[in-house]
Write a structure and sequence with these properties.
Elements: E1 6-11, E2 15-21, H1 24-29, E3 37-39, H2 42-51, E4 56-60, H3 62-72, E5 77-80, H4 87-98, E6 102-103, E7 114-121, E8 127-134, H5 146-150, E9 152-158, H6 165-180, E10 184-188, H7 192-207, E11 213-217, H8 218-225, H9 230-238, E12 243-247, E13 253-257, E14 260-264, H10 278-290, H11 296-310, H12 322-330
Parallel strand pairs: 1-5, 1-9, 2-7, 3-8, 5-6, 9-10, 10-11, 11-12
Antiparallel strand pairs: 2-4, 7-8, 12-13, 13-14
Helix pairs in contact: 3-10, 7-8, 8-9, 10-11, 11-12
């Protein structure tokens, strides 16, 4: 097998995050799903945007955030995602390329607009996300650069994008290409509501051995397996995927790989400011170790460090010098 040009290529939503601090009263007034992620249409997006306090606009999207973390850690990455030929689409493309990520998916003409996520952050740091997928839900298989996919050690897929039909077909094709090239498939479940809608697909992929690395949080694991007990959920999946990574927020994370289990505590921080991107950056930290053949425990530690960095400031992407931070924390 040839040495891949890229460490990770990801397929995911190409969206811009709009993040604002707010009180609990606004969450109630707008009837938002506190702490969750809700898909919304463009009219609702406009309504919520008008109701938001002063906000910051940052390029986001779960898989794109993970790649941003990986790039800051020195890995070679490429992104496949759909934007519209509009101002936000230009902003997203610029931000990705400025982070050192190759992004060459052609912009889409006409409506809908580039996607955006309206994120309300309460004083406890909890984020409530409202996602208008926009152009992202129309990523066609024809837009895939199959040579690029085959030239990446890991194909990383975002569960959020499994919901719309067109990108789901594109991701299925990408899996075929990566498999044929002998590459690894990493999959993040993204959110319990996605599992509610597409759990049969995900469980089938697990049973068929399609997924090499599965990322879930505690709630997603319960939804996927039907087991409320965390350990029972781990036991139900661990033997079916080569690598299972399950995060538990302040209680740390575990990973099971080919019968080996490792655990890590959450990093200690002074104050949670914004949990947006915590899971995305955990995946970045973990994969940055995995791609370099680090031990399972080291991969988990790198994930915990990356997640802790992103929750002490607003926004879903790292602001610190991540390579220096890893060197300081890991020695």
């Amino acid at each position: 097998m040839t040495q891949p040009r890229y460490d990770v290529v990801a397929i995911g939503n190409a969206v811009v995050d709009v993040i604002a601090s707010c009180g609990e009263d606004l969450i109630e007034e707008l009837e938002l799903n506190r702490g969750g992620m809700t898909l919304i249409d463009e009219a609702r997006a406009d309504e919520l945007y008008s109701a938001m306090p002063p906000a910051r606009e940052l390029s986001g999207g779960s898989a794109a955030n993970t790649l941003a973390g990986l790039s800051t850690l020195g890995l070679q990455c490429a992104f496949i995602g759909q934007v519209a030929d509009d101002q936000l689409g230009g902003v997203f493309a610029h931000d990705m390329r400025a982070t050192g990520i190759d992004f060459d998916t052609p912009a889409r003409d006409g409506e809908p607009a580039t996607g955006r996520v309206l994120i309300f952050v309460t004083p406890d740091g909890e984020r409530t996300m409202n996602t208008f997928l926009g152009a992202g839900q129309f990523l066609p298989a024809a837009a895939l650069d199959e040579a690029l996919i085959a030239d990446a050690g890991i194909l990383y897929l975002e569960g959020y994008l499994w919901d719309p039909e067109e990108p789901r077909k594109a991701m299925r094709r990408a899996i075929e290409v990566a498999r044929k090239a002998g590459r690894k498939i990493a999959f993040t479940a993204s959110e319990s509501f996605v599992i509610d809608r597409h759990g049969d697909d995900f469980r089938a992929m697990i049973e068929e051995g399609v997924i090499d690395i599965l990322f879930v949080n505690e709630g997603e694991l319960a939804t996927l397996t039907g087991e409320d007990d965390f350990e029972a959920g781990v036991a139900a999946v661990a033997g079916k995927v080569p690598v299972l990574v399950a995060t538990r927020g302040e209680h740390g994370a575990i990973a099971v790989a080919n019968g080996e289990r490792a655990e890590v505590a959450a990093e200690q921080i002074d104050k949670v400011v914004d949990t947006t991107g915590a899971g995305d950056q955990f995946a970045a930290g973990f994969l940055s170790g995995y791609a370099r053949d680090a031990s399972l425990e080291t991969c988990l530690k790198r994930g915990a460090i990356a997640a802790a960095e992103v929750i002490v400031h607003y926004g879903p992407r790292p602001e610190a010098d991540m390579r220096a931070l890893m060197a300081e924390k890991l020695g």
